[in-house]
Amino acid sequence: MTSENSLQELKLHSKYLVLDESKARYFIITGGRGSGKSFAINTILLLLTYQAGHTILFTRYTLRSAAISIIPEFKEKIELLDKVDDFKITRDEIINKGNGSKIIFRGIKTSSGDQTANLKSLQGITTWVMDEAEELNDEDIFDKIDLSVRNKIQENRVILILNPTTKEHFIYKRWFEDRGVAAGSNITKDDTTYIHTTYLDNLDNLSESYIKQITNKGVSEIDPPRSNWQARAYTVGAFQKYPELDEITFVFYIPVRNEVLEGTFTREELPLLVKQLADVIRNGEKVRPQWDGGFPEADALSPSVNCRFCKHEEYCPSLGGLAVEIVQRISGDNLPKENIEDPTDPNTVEHLYIVAKVVENWAKRVKEKAVALAKDGMEFQNLKLKSMGATRKCTDNIKLLEIAKEYDLEQEDLLNLISIPLKKVANAVGDNAPKGEKGEKSRSFLDAVENNGIIETSEERFTLS
C-alpha cells in the first residue's frame, strides 16, 4: 500500500506497518489522545493515492466544512512528505495528479439530513475511513455504507478510527465482545486487524511540555459527547425542553488537558436516544428491588468498572461469578458456579475459599500494575490517578523527644500517643540477656507486662491453609 521507508522517515510507529501487510477488510484503530493514530492513518491514506485506481471515502459523523476542519491536517502531511506539487486540493477532495486516485471528504449527518443514500451512490470506493467512529451509533448506517465498498480492482478496506468506546456501542459488541478480542489488542483475527497505540508509542512526536502534562496530571480520558451517557441525557432533556431546536452541539471543555470535545446531535436521533436511556433506566428499575428480598439472579446483572460505587459490591453474586471465572482461567480448575452467595456445602465453601485466595493475590498484582502504568502516563477510560499521600516515620526518637519538649509536650504525653510494638521490645530485652537465656528473659518480660495489666489482647485470629 505504502512505502515502508516513507513511514519510517515520518516516525510512524511500526504497529502501523501491518496496514501494508494485512489482507483484512476491516481495520480497527484505537488509542487515546496523543497516540498518533490520526496522524498515521492520514499519512498512509496520502501514500495510498500513489497507487492508481483508488477512491478513498473519508467520513465523520458530522463534518461541517472539510476545507476548514480536516483538509488542513492533510495539507500538513503533504508538506511533510514534500509532495505539494503532486496533489490538487479542492474544498472537499484531494486528488493525486499523477494517476487520479483521490480522497473525498463527506459528513454522514448534515443540516439537510442523513447523507447515507448519497454516500452509497458514490462509485468506485476502495477504502472507507470512518474517523471518530465512536460517534456513529446507528449500525444500519454503517452496514449500508460498508456494503458499497466493493471495488473489484483494488483491495477493499474499511478503517474505523476511534477513541476507546463504551461497551454498549455496536463497534465494541461486534468487533470485540462477539469475537473475544480484548480492548487494546494488536492482532489480526478473521477479517479484522486491530491496531492500538497510546502516547507512549508516539513519544518521538510529542513535545516535552505535553508529555509532562499528561504524566503529571494522570487525568482519565472522557468519552466524546456522542458516546458519553451524561451528554446523551442532557441532550435529550434539552431537546424535550426546547422543541424549536433541530440540532444540539454538546461540548466538554477540559482545561487541564487543553482539550475541547464536541459532538452534534439532531432531533431525528431523539427517539433512539430516549430508547437507549430508557433501556438503562428500565433495567435498573427491574433489578434494584430484587436486592430487597435477597440477591438478584447473576444473569440480570452487568458488572462493570462502576461496580466499585455500589453498596452491594461486597456480596454481589455477579462479581462472585466473575471471581470463579478468573480462577478457572488462571488454574483451569473446574470450580462451582452455583450457590456462591451463601454456600453451606463443605466442598463448595472450600473451593470458594481457594477462589478468594487466588483472586486476592491476583487482584493485588493487577492493582499494583495499573497504578504503575498510570504513574508512567497511561490513560484509562474510567480511572484517574489520585495520590493517597505518603507515610512518614521518625528515624531518631531521642531527637523527637527533645523537639517535643521544646514545644511544651512532655515525654509522658508523647509516649501516650505512641503505639509501641511489644514483640520488638521483648526481643530487645532478650538480646541483652546472656547466651542461652535470651528466650527466657523475653518471655519473663512479657509476663511482667501482662501481670501489670497494661496489655490489651485482641481476639485470636485464624486462617486456613
Text of the CATH class of the largest domain: Alpha Beta
Could you tell me the CATH topology label of the largest domain: Rossmann fold
Number of H- or I-type helical stretches: 17
- Which CATH-level-2 architecture of the largest domain? 3-Layer(aba) Sandwich
Report on this structure:
The chain has 17 helices and 12 strands. The chain is an alpha/beta fold and 465 residues long. The protein folds into 4 domains: 4-205, P-loop containing nucleotide triphosphate hydrolases (Rossmann fold), CATH 3.40.50; 222-293, no CATH class; 296-388, no CATH class; 397-451, no CATH class. Strands 1, 2, 3, 4, 5, 6, 7, 8, 9 and 10 form a 10-stranded mixed sheet that branches. It has a two-stranded antiparallel sheet with strand order 11-12.
